[in-house]
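Query form — protein Ice-binding protein C-terminal domain-containing protein

QUESTION: What is the three-dimensional structure of this chain?
INPUT:
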Amino acid sequence: MVKFGTALLSAAAVSVLGASPSAAATILQKFDGVSLRDFITASNGFGTTPPDMAGAVSNTHVMQVVNGGVAIFDRSGNRLSYQRTDQFISAAGVPVSFQNSPFDPRLKYDPNSKRFFGVMESVGPPGGTMAPSNGRDFPKLGEDGESEGAELHNVLLGPDGNPVPGQQGVSSTPNNPIYVFVSKTSNPLDGFNAVKFNTSQSLFGDFPTLGLTRDALTITTNDFDDHSLQSVSIFSIPKADLLQNAPSLANMTRLEGLDPALFGFAVQGVNNDGPSNGTQKLVAISAVAYNQENISQLAFNGNGRVVGLTPEGATAILYDGDTRGSRQPVLVSPPLDGGGDRISNDVHQVGNYIYVTHTYGDGQFGAPTHFNGIAYEIIDATTNLVVAQGNIEDPNMDFTHSSITPDSTGKYFALAYTGSGPDHAITAYANVCTFDSVALSTHCGNRLTVMEGLDPGYVLTLGGDRNRWGDYSDVQWDQLTGTFWLFQEYPGLRGGNAPPNSGRWNTVISQISVPEPATWAMMMLGFGFVGFGMRRTRRPTISYA
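ANSWER: The structure tokens for Ice-binding protein C-terminal domain-containing protein are given below.
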């Protein structure tokens, strides 16, 4: 499939705040999350990359799941437990081998049921072994819709940091397993229950996503054969069935073999903690056209079971274009993985508005891309039109791997993302923004430096055409304290072995305040607006404890 053209742009207010003398939001605390070193220590010298970030926060605990590892912390950052993902899922009731360790995690704490819900996939079948594939598994759909080479997943690294022969990835293992896990109580230390189902169509169901509502938990996959994307699929499970002492998939609905031209690529089921209206929206970047997002809708009966799926067409967005490899200070070839323009992490709805973010390249309609930026859209769930949107960009930097979440009112939202450039090491950044639902405009405060990378030239190609990074960050709203929690990757000090596989990823978990309303009013009156982009010259200095 080849992307083309664009739809007519709907009227949408786009405004972002210019530079200001101080940050509108502050970092309250931050601490180390799971690192590559944790997995190596727990796996007799083996490692895995990239981390693929998932995190969630309850009133008592912080939980993080990455490729290969699951950690639970108290809210002050003290680590209380750590398991490999195969150990975690096996302890939850579904045996899985180390060689088939689950990956591509998604995680959410549900304030309604007071449970943690999560999803991971594996290469399967359980008990099988990884097929040698020179460090690659399946072709990744490029931003132009064409295959642009293979994407690395669940890559096992030996003690020297290099890929293990014959364990460098997987071929497109068809009908692979998807794991769903739910905490037994609000305390994740009390354990989890897990269930498993397999994809079908003799395809590899990749990049599972999680969308949770009052009615159901919805999972989507991109379905690949050995060469390219063939379809997308949707799996929806009544939430009540997962909250039983023995979770059940008996009422799960499988909607497989769907056309990406209608439903998009990397479809995201919308997360909505609000009252049920018997529906759930799904949003995805178009697989065939620039500057569009596809929207569809599931309908449920009173028991949370799907009774209908409706593709509702495409809505126009301003910011979309081929992404490029991200730049670093030290001359490194090839560049850092930019992640593509897909919506890589959760989409959220508060009231009637849906919050979306993704990476884009400045080259519109297939023109050459010079830098990557972060775009966000706020969509009216009734009309499916984008009512406000904005971007974060700087021609001297590349911003990628963004995630978004609103607060419980929808007035504030936070963005977490990666940034790097010729003068900037890979760094975890964040912004806190406001959305005015009357004026239909957005305003973002200063870019916060959450954690600067320790390695100015991150190198981890594993035989691919990019230094492997990502594939996504995560950000969650904390109702207890009215703050945002961010889960992000940054480069640690490199390993002792020589390139090309010396990169070492770390993660950081941070808690960020919401600014006082008076602060926003002062900033908006005193400093005005600048076009469509946000370009910061000042950043707060944050010490790392």
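ADDITIONAL NOTE: The two ends are 48 Å apart (CA to CA).
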